[in-house]
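We treat protein structure as text, and this decision shapes the records that our systems exchange. Such a record has a labelled line for the sequence and another for the backbone structure tokens. The record that follows is passed on verbatim for readers who wish to inspect the format:
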Amino acid sequence: MEERDFYMIEESSLKGIPLIVINRVMRNSFINILDTVLKNLKKDKGFIIVFPGMLDSHVHFNNIEKIKETKDFFTSCNIERFCIVSPASLSGINSNSQALCFKATYSSETYIMGGLDYSGITRYSKNEMRKNLKQQLIRMLAIGFDGVKILETKPNFFRQMPFKIDEPEYEKFFETVEEERVPIVWHVVDPPEFWDRKKIHPVALKRGWGYFSKGYPSYEEIRQRVHRVLSKFPNLKIIFAHFYFLSQNLDEAVEVLEKFMSVNFDITPGAEMYVNFSSMPDEARKFFIKYQDRIVFGTDISVGRQFDRKGAGEKIAFMRKFLETDDEFYMPEGDINFLSETDRIIRGIKLPVSVLEKIYEKNFQRIVGKKPAPIDMEKALQECDRIGDILARQFNVRENQNSGYMAQKYLEKIRRKR
């Protein structure tokens, strides 16, 4: 390996952290000995390794006007590909139409996980709902979605659902997901402290994520229902978001991964996850190395009316510094989803380069696919029109704010250019 195959720079989008940039062409030829090279660098100086081909598995996107800005931001952070997750909603539909626009614009870089549509939930019988959810899945796959996003087991969503995730309404849906090998990015529960008024983060409390009032399900009830689904459909391809909220209990995380062999965890923050890891860095490092094939990188960056580029960049830099160095450093403020604890000192776990490559890209591609699924433009246009009609008629959304109709117009422009 020659000196030109890697180099250091001091300025980047990941503010204030020196970078080691790996030449894309040479990466595979020296990746196995790069760890030895890094040991010769100054021990007291943190750095970030720039891996060509990084993939963010967990991005929320709701604003068609910010497609280019969002793509440029990720490129500046050396993230070449990403997965947009579009959760369901009971107060609207989902952001599937916006995700389709992003994918149509950057088709080779963008994976999309679609959310289910519950706008007809009060009109259907149980049997009709079973058929409907399966039909929705088949329609999403035909359009070009790469998988499904489930938020229905987040406690405030779970509480509002008239049927639960392990009940018959979902049976045909999960049967088809398993048969078709459709990946799921699945949010289950929330941090345990959200059930404790004394421990909950004040921002989480303000956003309505406190579950100590009457009527909320317990942390264990939700997970028991999810485990019943996993036991009934053992071949589901799952990425549990936010480390399945088990960062405080690595022994239990081990039990889940050993019992359900098709389950994977992403390491999308909340900050509490990294506080927990940092409180036991040696144990966390051993866990990451042992389960290096089951861990996926994701950021939970959200782009809506506003896009906090500064906070998002801080969060990415923080996550990578934790994974790539053994430095001690303060937690940054990050963006609104981070729920930072800025007085906390975090200690990194400095994973081997070979492990980082799997977490940053290869594991997601093994689970979801080497390349994003292609979009069927005609079917995508029909879906955006369908969403637009529901938003207009059922939710009284004005045309200039109707994401379905706006997406339809955006896709029409792309189709005319092709």
